[in-house]
Amino acid sequence: MLSRAWKHLALSAASLVAAGSAMAAPVDGGIDFQPPVTETAKAVHAFHNEVLIIIAVITAFVTALLIWVMIRYNRKANPVAKKFSHNTVVEIIWTVVPVLILVWIAKGSFPLLYEQDVAFNGEKIPEEQVVDIKIYGNMWYWDYTYNQNTDKEFMVESRMLREGDADRPLVPARGDLKQLSTDHPMVAPAGRYVRLKITARDVIHAWAMPQFTLKVDAVPGRLNQLWFKVDQPGIYYGQCSELCGKDHSNMPIELWILPQAQYDQWQAAAQADPAKGGREYLDSLPRPGATQVASAN
Ligand SMILES: [Cu+2]
Fold this sequence. Notes:
Layout: H1 2-18, H2 39-72, H3 88-119, E1 131-138, E2 141-146, E3 154-158, E4 186-189, E5 194-200, E6 205-209, E7 214-218, E8 224-228, E9 234-240, E10 252-258, H4 260-272, H5 279-283
Parallel strand pairs: 1-5, 4-10
Antiparallel strand pairs: 1-2, 2-3, 5-8, 6-7, 6-9, 9-10
The structure holds copper (II) ion.
C-alpha cells in the first residue's frame, strides 16, 4: 500500500524532471541532474526520486521524535524520570523496520547496477550488432580505440581544448564549451548498443557521463564495462570523475552521437588519419550552440 503511494509520488516527480529542457551540457546555476537520455538513466532517476522520498520521510519522522522528546520530557515538563531501560516491542520495531527499508532500497538498486554493466535492457543482442569501443584513461586525456582486433582498428586521442592554446584553441563560436570540449571527441552511432571497455594506462581515472547515469573507474590492469543506447543524436559531455592528479580537471569527455550514416563517414575519415580524429568531418556538421563553422584544428 505504502510502497504503491511512494511509487506514484516518485513517478510524478520523475515526469517533472523529464519535462525539463533537453540540454546536452551542464547549465549555469543548475541544481538538479542533467536530463536523462537513455532508458537506464530514466530508471536511475526514478529510483533516485523514490529514495529521496524515503530519506525525506525518515528525516521528518526523526526530527518530530526529537522535538517531541525535547518538549514532553525536559526537566520542567517531566521532573521525575521513569527508571525502566528496555522495551522489547519497540526494540524489535526499530530493528526490523530499518532492515525492511534497506532491503526495499537494495531491491531497486542492485538490478540497476547490473543493467548499467551488462544487461542490455534484458534483451539478447547478437554480438555482431554491438558496437565495441575501448577506452583508456591517461594522465591527462582519454583515448578511444574502435574496431579493436580487426583490420579496421584505429585509436583517437581526446584532449581538452584550452583558451588561447596554440595547438588546441577553444573556439566558443564553434560551439566549444570551456572545460568540456575536446580536440577529437569520442563518437558513437545513434540507436545502437554501444559497449564500452574501460581501463587506464597509468593511474585510476573514471569515465562518467551524467546524462546516461554511467560512471565507472578506469583501473590499470583491469577491464570495466558499461553500455548505452542513445536514440537522440547530439553532443554529450562528461568528465573524469576519479581524482587522478594535477590535471584531473582537464580531462573532459565529449561524445558525439551521430546517425549511422554520419558515423560511418566519420569512421572512414578518422581511420584514414587517426591523429586528426575525423575532426574536419565533425566540423562540417551543423552543431548546437555554434554561431559559425570554424576551421578544423
Ligand atoms: Cu583522470
